[in-house]
Write a structure and sequence with these properties.
By secondary structure, this protein is α+β, with helices and mostly antiparallel strands. The protein has helices at about 1-5, 260-265, 310-315, 390-410, 510-530, 545-550, 570-580, 600-605, 650-655, 670-679, and strands at about 25, 35-40, 45-55, 60-65, 75-80, 85, 90-95, 100-105, 115-120, 130, 135, 210, 235-240, 275, 285, 295, 365, 390, 415-425, 430-440, 445-455, 485-490, 500-505, 535-540, 560-565, 585-590, 620-625, 635, 645. The protein is elongated and about 95 Å long. This is Beta-1,4-N-acetylgalactosaminyltransferase.
Length: about 675
């Protein structure tokens, strides 16, 4: 539908290409495209005219009563089917005047694409004729203009994404703009938290005892093979729900998740249910997590109502032992039986012996939340599930301890207003790292924001690894006991709120996306008033726009333009851009085009990058065809690391981009960089 064209991020200013037509009839024989044709109409006589349009798929013809584009009105259209529509009422035209017109056309991947506009004098029996070159003229001559020159392009009611109701074609199902309804589009305080004043850093000193940050999941003394670094990436847990789970799933993207019958068969509701009637010794058959069948008496099947995610987390991390203690008695697997991690749907075998069924029997079910059963293992085949959900009870417990310590240190002047965001990085062997972001009331007068990393030590490690307060005075043979668990402040894990962020982007002949990127950066600066970022564009001889001039005319706070000859090389372009950065204690954000940036991107980069400790690889959504940031249908790019934030000192330490191996190609250079960073 034409509505799909209006939703495109670049419509109507930045098309793929511009050209001219000699008559109002085109059939380029393309698929999945849209057209906007505009100019002036010159009547060959005075009088009343009728117009018609024919197309496959949908189209609209707009005409102004004069030469002003803003006065254009919808005259005729083609809706769901390819038929000819004509105007019911004539238009009075004068041959000595010109009239602005506009045609919109949208084609999918089926049928014969075409659009034609015809006219005829308002007389009975006359046929419609296609409007040809003698009666049309250019709105402006674009032959000498670059693709990013858009000041001359008219914006009209036809090109506006939200068409007023009186101009909406009636009865065209699918053409109307309707709200998307995705939960992730609802307002979230995370989006604007950067604008809240920061708490005085001195108020946070000595709130918690200091402790060394030494997680067990960090790879040490282990050689990583090519692209093996992906296996050492784990997901974070967040609270409150950020609604990043996608509801518009592609059918081929089957997940080990809530609606999956395999998920339910492997782990099963039976773990959370028990029979309500009296116990007896009749036998029931249940599938074991390994897919085999075992015999369980009803009296044995009284499960602990507090059963939760422990075993499931271990299993999804492939660490569960065989649940059958006597493997010799296992049934032989049937042909075609699914493996532990099969994603193919199979017919579920009956789980009850038919002769044993008692239809009068009832059962009760314990509460459960499948959201909390997910593991932090990064399943590259599951790309619609979004961020892991952190249990509210855990958040409340940790923050209650922290707020108590904060007020002990500051005389009770803080009140918790809102929990904006909590992110957890789990380490069951040592302790959990939390990023806590709180909205606080200070002295009952002012609202401030707190955004800090804290650490909850669960177990003691080697002497001196947990607390740095006692390492100088405590004897090596008998370290003093520590509270277990211990809420502490991890040293060397503080993020800098004012650190410079450099967006580095290599480009070649991507005019509309380069212009979009510059416009996004301008808007980012205008909305956040943040001057501590710059953009570095490495241009491989673009011919479709003057990138340097566009940067000069922009309102970005700082920029660097670097021109390089030859073919496009992403690795080389990124390395060239990073080499221009003189401050090694600033953040490099290896970036790409085709990205829609939220306003909190700068703060997200800063708080997830800690020099010598943390790098940041945000998971972005890859939009499906016809989608937009306002209608986000697609999937999460869980295996993409093309966007990567890292301190320049750390980038230099691991050797930068691999410009030799990825000299004449790109794709995989981000995974190779990840290998070296993790190693």
């Amino acid at each position: 539908s034409v509505a799909q064209l209006r939703k495109n991020l670049h419509f109507p200013l930045y098309p793929h290409t511009r050209t001219t037509v000699k008559k109002l009839a085109v059939a380029p024989k393309w698929k999945n495209y849209g057209l906007r044709i505009f100019g002036f109409l010159h009547p060959y006589k005075d009088g009343d005219f009728q117009f018609s349009v024919s197309s496959d798929d949908n189209s609209e013809f707009w005409l102004s009563p004069d030469e002003c584009p803003l006065n254009a009105r919808l005259l005729v259209y083609v809706g769901q089917v390819s038929i000819q529509f004509f105007s019911c009422f004539p238009c009075s035209l004068i041959s000595s005047r010109r009239y602005y017109f506009e045609i919109l056309h949208k084609q999918d991947d089926k049928g014969s694409d075409h659009v034609e506009v015809g006219w005829r004098p308002f007389l009975p029996g006359l046929k419609y004729e296609v409007i040809d070159s003698a009666y049309i003229s250019l709105y402006t001559d674009e032959s000498s203009l670059k693709m990013n020159s858009v000041d001359h392009i008219p914006q009209t009611l036809a090109s506006h994404i939200h068409l007023p109701a009186e101009f909406q074609p009636q009865g065209l199902e699918g053409d109307m703009i309707t709200p998307h309804g995705a939960d992730m589009l609802r307002p979230d305080p995370r989006d604007t938290f950067y604008s809240t004043p920061v708490i005085d850093p001195s108020r946070l000193q000595n709130v918690l005892p200091a402790c060394l940050y030494s997680p067990t999941y960090v790879v040490k003394d282990f050689p990583i093979a090519r692209y093996q670094g992906l296996q050492f990436v784990y997901l974070s847990f967040v609270y409150p729900n950020d609604f990043t789970r996608l509801t518009h799933m592609e059918r081929e993207n089957k997940c080990f998740y809530r609606e999956s019958p395999i998920y339910l068969e492997k782990f099963g509701f039976y773990k959370y249910m028990k029979m309500d009637e009296e116990e007896d010794d009749r036998l029931f058959f249940f599938p074991n997590p390994d897919g085999k069948t075992s015999e369980i008496t009803e009296s044995q099947h009284q499960l602990n109502p507090d059963s939760h995610l422990t075993d499931i987390d271990q299993d999804t991390n492939r660490s569960n032992p065989d649940p059958n203690p006597n493997p010799e008695q296992e049934l032989e697997p049937e042909e075609g039986e699914m493996s532990d991690y099969s994603y193919e749907e199979v017919e579920v075998r009956p789980g009850w012996a038919e002769e044993s069924i008692n239809w009068q029997r009832t059962f009760s079910v314990n509460p459960m939340d499948f959201e909390l059963l997910r593991s932090d293992w990064n399943d590259l085949r599951c790309n619609v599930s979004g961020n892991l959900q952190l249990a509210e009870s855990e958040v409340v417990d940790v923050l209650a301890q922290y707020m108590e310590k904060l007020n002990e240190r500051n005389g009770g002047i803080y009140t918790l207003l809102r929990i904006i965001n909590v992110e957890k990085r789990r380490d069951s062997a040592r302790g959990n790292r939390y990023l806590v972001e709180l909205e606080l009331m200070e002295r009952g007068r002012s609202v401030v924001r707190l955004s800090e990393y804290i650490y909850l030590l669960l177990h003691r490690g080697r002497q001196g690894e947990e607390s740095v307060e006692n390492t100088d005075s405590a004897p090596a043979s008998a370290p003093p006991p520590l509270p277990s668990p211990l809420l502490c402040q991890p040293v060397m894990l503080q993020w800098r709120r004012d650190v410079m962020v450099h967006f580095v982007v290599p480009v070649k002949n991507q005019a509309r996306w380069v212009q979009q990127f510059i416009s996004d950066m301008e808007n980012l600066h205008q909305q956040t008033k943040d001057d501590n970022f710059s953009i570095i564009i490495v241009d491989f001889e673009s011919e479709d726009m003057d990138v340097e001039q566009a940067l000069r005319e922009s309102r970005v706070p700082k920029y660097e333009y670097l021109r390089r000859e030859g073919n496009f090389e992403r690795s080389a372009g990124l390395q060239i851009g990073v080499d221009t950065i003189k401050d090694s204690h600033s953040i490099v954000f290896l970036c790409d085009l085709h990205i829609h940036f939220p306003l909190n991107i700068l703060e997200s980069i800063r708080k997830h990058c800690v020099e010598g400790r943390l790098a940041f690889a945000p998971i972005v959504m890859r939009l499906s065809c016809g989608s937009s940031p306002l209608e986000p249908n697609g999937y999460w790019e869980v295996n993409g690391f093309g966007l990567f934030g890292i301190y320049k000192s750390d980038f230099d330490k691991i050797g930068g981009m691999n410009t030799e191996e990825f000299k004449d190609r790109w794709g995989g250079e981000d995974w190779e960089l990840l290998d070296r960073y993790i190693d």
